[in-house]
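User: tokens in, sequence out, please.
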């Protein structure tokens, strides 16, 4: 009984192991080209470098905003020995000098100069987004081309090897005929000559296959045998617009190179505005500060100072340098606009050439498939006529070579059609991983967000603003008891030290500063 139980357990374990192995094998063979490309995009150094540029651009935008509109606190101080000679109102002093300063500076307004600089930084970041998009699309096209070339090289090599085997088999037949006294030695020599040519094609095909495998390694960072197991994707022809005009319209709206130049132009425009405002408008800043010093300027006692003020500055170059900078920025803007127009023309040319190349590739593929069919029929008839001595051996061998070459050319032409279609999609700015999904169509690639999606984003932004307001309100409420405590009459037993007497002066200075910066905000905060 124990042996039967043990056998049953072993049998069940074997069945489960086999099922697991089958599932694992099925999962391995179920990998799609889209999945492999997604992994390659996530790990390739070229894409990672462009992504790092985008993150750096985001950090620069944050840095510009924080450095421009957030207050800056600065601490400074000194300790040393101060010796002063006889003063007009007193004797000479020889004191230990100590001072500690703290200031808070806040930009109040500069008439749009800082905002223009922020817009320029943000446009530069958006330009990096377009560069990343362009890198991704070109990488996907390059990877697809490498994948198709791998498949094509293997198919061409298979045809070349098939040609060698057919010629060898025909040579064996001719050798048998000679041994029986029915063949000709010249026929055998013809077979050997054809065989040498076929073997040369095999060697050439193997070199092409090796180059395709090396390209796969550099792009996918995986063994080519793994990529070779991935099945061919569906035809991309459903993604191609019905007319060239539609393709051009999509390219003008979505091509990342055009978008990159547009963002560069926007950055140049913001730079011009910033320089123009800097020349004609002042900058207003607010400052709150406090100083504690002792033994400074011959005063042998502790002094405390508090300050709250608004300052403005407007540097004017008497040589007109500011105007020169504005004119230079205007010319930079004009140059960027011209380059944008030139980029649009180059993209238009690329779309037109890709459209023509795709049309030519489709026509060529159809003709080569027809040629392969006719070559197969000719070879079949030539072999029958050879048996009846109506055809020479050279006719049959030429037919063999013509058929193999026709099949090879037809297979290569089919790959050229797919590569041309994807090249057109890149020129249109529509090369996304979604194009490899079964049943993908062009309308889904640039589908506008639905009203519900737009409302959801707006609601999310509204919630973020509400959360920020609630946090501010909570902080103001936590400060309210402190204010009430300060306004309440102090009990004799809880009398504060004399050093705390500076607190009302500091608070009054802060109040004055806030009222000068934004009276409405201060009133609302006091009401809370």
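Assistant: Sequence out:
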């Amino acid at each position: 009984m124990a042996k039967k139980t043990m056998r049953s357990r072993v049998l069940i374990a074997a069945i489960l192991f086999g099922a697991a192995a089958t599932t694992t094998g099925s999962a391995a063979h179920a990998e799609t080209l889209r999945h492999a490309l997604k992994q390659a995009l996530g790990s390739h150094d070229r894409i990672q470098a462009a992504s790092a540029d985008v993150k750096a651009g985001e950090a620069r935008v944050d840095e510009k905003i924080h450095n421009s509109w957030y207050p800056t606190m600065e601490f400074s101080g000194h300790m040393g020995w101060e010796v002063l000679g006889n003063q007009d109102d007193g004797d000479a002093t020889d004191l230990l000098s100590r001072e500690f300063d703290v200031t808070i500076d806040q930009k109040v307004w500069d008439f749009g100069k800082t905002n223009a600089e922020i817009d320029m930084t943000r446009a530069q970041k958006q330009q990096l987004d377009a560069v990343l998009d362009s890198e991704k699309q070109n990488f996907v096209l390059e990877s697809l081309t490498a994948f198709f070339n791998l498949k094509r090289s293997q198919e061409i090599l298979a045809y070349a090897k098939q040609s060698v085997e057919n010629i060898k088999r025909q040579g064996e037949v001719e050798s048998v005929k000679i041994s029986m006294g029915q063949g000709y030695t010249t026929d055998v020599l013809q077979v050997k000559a054809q065989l040498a040519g076929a073997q040369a094609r095999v060697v050439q095909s193997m070199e092409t296959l090796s180059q395709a495998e090396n390209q796969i390694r550099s792009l996918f960072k995986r063994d080519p045998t793994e990529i070779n197991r991935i099945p061919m994707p569906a035809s991309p022809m459903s993604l191609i617009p019905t007319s060239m005009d539609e393709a051009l319209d999509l390219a003008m709206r979505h091509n990342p190179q055009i978008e990159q130049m547009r963002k560069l132009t926007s950055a140049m425009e913001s730079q011009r505005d910033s320089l123009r405002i800097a020349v004609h408008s002042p900058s207003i800043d607010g400052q709150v500060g406090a100083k504690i010093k002792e033994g400074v300027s011959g005063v042998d006692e502790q002094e405390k100072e508090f300050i709250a003020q608004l300052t403005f500055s407007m540097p004017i170059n008497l040589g007109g340098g500011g105007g020169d900078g504005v004119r230079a920025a205007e010319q930079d803007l004009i140059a960027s606009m011209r380059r944008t127009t030139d980029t649009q023309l180059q993209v238009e040319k690329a779309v037109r050439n890709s459209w023509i190349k795709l049309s030519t590739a489709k026509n060529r593929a159809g003709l080569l498939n027809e040629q392969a069919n006719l070559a197969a029929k000719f070879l079949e008839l030539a072999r029958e006529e050879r048996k009846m001595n109506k055809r020479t051996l050279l006719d049959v061998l030429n037919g063999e070579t013509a058929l193999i070459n026709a099949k090879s050319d037809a297979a290569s032409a089919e790959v050229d059609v797919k590569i041309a279609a994807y090249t057109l999609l890149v020129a249109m700015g529509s090369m996304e991983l979604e194009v490899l999904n079964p049943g993908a169509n062009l309308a889904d690639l640039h589908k506008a967000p639905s009203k519900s999606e737009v409302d959801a984003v707006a609601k999310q932004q509204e919630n973020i603003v509400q959360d920020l307001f609630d946090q501010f309100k909570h902080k103001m409420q936590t400060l309210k008891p402190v204010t009430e405590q300060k306004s309440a009459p102090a009990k004799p037993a809880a009398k504060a030290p004399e050093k705390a007497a500076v607190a009302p002066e500091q608070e009054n200075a802060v109040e004055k500063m806030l009222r000068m910066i934004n009276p409405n905000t201060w009133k609302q905060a006091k009401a809370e």
